[in-house]
Amino acid sequence: MLLKLENPGVLLKAIEMISELVSEARMKVSEYGVSITAMDPANVAMVGFKLPKSAFSQFESDPEILGISLDNLKRILKRASAGSSIIIEKKENMLNILIQDRIKRNFSLSLIEIESEDIDFEAKTGRMEFSSRVELSSVDFVDSIEDCAVVADACSLIIRDGKFIIEAKSLNSARAEFSGDEAAIRAENCKARYSLEYLQKFIKGAKLCEKTILNFADDHPLRIDFLPGNMELSFILAPRVETED
């Protein structure tokens, strides 16, 4: 296996966000590219990441499943500066990562056994039914979630009469409302509530692209998609079903 990536910053940003949920994961290398699917220990959230073969300047590999410490991989990727490239090569039970810059630097990362269930992201999410799809500015989405986090630990995503609302209520409240002028809304009336602790982790992905895509339904899981360039980064978050604040 030998993979060369001219822009390792893309991989670093994805690994940083995935490591917010899990400390280790299986990295699958296939004819389509590189992917990671992982569930957080509490089984509340799931992440799916894809970096297609076309993103690599060199891609030579048979199908591989690599058990990796994301924290260790993240530390190595951070050593690559802007303008440098990386070559990833598997040798026995090690992953050799060569950073090519003004000088060549080489790191060896031990591969590990992953105990958790092997998950197929598309198979898992393909069974989910969403009644509402909202595409909005990533900046607006981040601001709305951060507003809600000031007043509560959960927020509701609401579709009401063609408008999209992000709202949090406790002793205090916060609310952001979007019409069809500010967001692309294809939805029916519904409402679902989600943990802001998780959403604050996910919105870091919003910094990668201008638009954020949300899919949800009444008291159903939320799917968040960030699609910067040819990379795909998606999160699934279970609803918080309980009585109103």
Describe the structure.
It contains 5 helices and 18 strands. It has 245 residues and is an alpha+beta fold. It folds into 2 domains: 2-114, Proliferating Cell Nuclear Antigen, CATH 3.70.10.10; 127-237, Roll (DNA Polymerase III, Chain A, domain 2). The protein has a 9-stranded antiparallel sheet. Strands 5-1-7-8-9 form a 5-stranded antiparallel sheet, covered by helices on one side. A 4-stranded antiparallel sheet has the order 13-12-11-15.
In short:
By secondary structure, this protein is an alpha+beta fold. It has helices at 8-18, 70-77, 121-126, 138-151, 196-202, and strands at residues 2-5, 24-30, 33-39, 45-52, 58-60, 64-69, 85-91, 94-100, 104-110, 132-137, 154-160, 163-169, 173-178, 183-186, 190-195, 211-216, 222-226, 232-237. It folds into 2 domains: 2-114, Proliferating Cell Nuclear Antigen; 127-237, DNA Polymerase III, Chain A, domain 2 (Roll).
Relevant terms:
245 residues, alpha+beta, Proliferating Cell Nuclear Antigen, DNA Polymerase III, Chain A, domain 2, 2 domains, 5 helices
Helical segment tally? 5
- Alpha-carbon distance between the two ends: 53 Å
Number of strands: 18
Number of domains: 2
Determine and state the CATH class of the largest domain: Alpha Beta
Uncertain residue ranges: none
Work out the radius of gyration.
19 Å
**Residue-averaged pLDDT:** 93
Would you tell me the structural class of the helices and strands? alpha+beta
Q: What do we call the CATH topology of the largest domain?
A: Proliferating Cell Nuclear Antigen
Helix amount = 10-25%
Largest sheet report: 9 strands, antiparallel
Strand content: 35-45%
- Strand line-up across the major sheet: 6-2-3-4-18-17-16-10-14
In N-to-C order, the SSE pattern is EHEEEEEHEEEHEHEEEEEHEEE
Global morphology: elongated
Task: Give the oligomer, counting copies of the same chain as homo and different chains as hetero.
Answer: single chain
Query: Which CATH architecture of the largest domain would you pick?
Result: Box
